[in-house]
Amino acid sequence: MIIYNKTWLKNLDLQNQLKRAQRLGDITAEELKHMEEKYPVGFYMPNIFIRAGLFILTQIITSFAGGLLSLILGSIDDLVTSPGYWLFLGIISYIALELIVQRMHHFRSGVDDALMWTAAGLILSAFIGYLTIAQRNGLSAPFESYLFGFTLVLAAYFTLRFADMLMAVVSFLSLISFLFFSREIFGFYAAAILPFLIILVSAGVYFLCVSWKKHKDYENCLIAVQVFCLLIGYAAGNYFVVKEMGSMINPPLQEGEGLPLGWFSWTWTIVLPFVYISLGLKRKDVVLLRSGLILIAAAAFTFRNYYHIMPIEGALSLGGAALLAISYGVIHYLKTPKKGFTYEEFDDDQLMDKIKVESLIVGETFSGPSAAPEGSRMGGGSFGGGGSSADF
Amino acid sequence: MNAAHYDKLKEEDFISAASIENIRMRRQSPLFSLHWELKTLLYLGVMLLSTGLGILIYKNIDTIGHQVILAIIAAISIGCFAYCLKHRPPFSREKVKSPNSLFDYLLLLGCLSFLTFVGYLQFQYTVFGTNYGMATFIPMLLLFFVAYEFDHLGILSMGIANLAIWMGVSVTPAQVLSSGNFDNETVIYTYLILGLILLLAGQLTEYFNFKKHFRFSYLHFGIHISFISLLFGYFNHYSSPLSFIWLVLLFVLAFYLYTDARKHKSFYFLLLVVLYSYIAFSIIMVRGFITINDIGAIYLCCLYFIGSAIALIRLLIYLNKQIKAS
Question: What is the ipTM of this complex?
Answer without folding.
Answer: 0.81
